[in-house]
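Q: Got a minute? One more chain.
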Amino acid sequence: MSDNLLGLYYSKLTKSLLHLEYSYNKALSLDTNPKNLAEEQLEAWDAYASRFARSSDIFLSKFIKAYIKKDDPAFDGSFRDTLHRAEKLQLINNSEEWYTIREMRNVVVHEYSDDDLSNFFKQLLKYTPQVLELRKKLANAAE
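A: Always. Here it is, folded:
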């Protein structure tokens, strides 16, 4: 993978993270119980979840792979192998937490009960700061 591709993914990721931060800040004031939410508030949660999924997907499916290929062009591991390699390269602090973030990205497309949705909203709030931290952490990695 070329440095240009890594730079392109970095650019897309940083833009996506700005949108995620906006939605995160908006969600901080929202109730996490779907039963207590008006349609406009549910729409805000939906946008937030989509932005979380998009940002984590760009990072996990594009940026990390490009970065690892730059370091080791022959690397061809599983998703877990990729996370472990990213941890060794200090792109991430904890591969298991990022595996959880990947699973949360997959949740966005499914329907769940109000209790499940409430737990999902709480998880979004819990893991978003870690995703947003990528802006600072990766500033030098893309160079």
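A: Residues 30 and 41 are 7 Å apart (CA to CA).
Q: Perfect, thanks.
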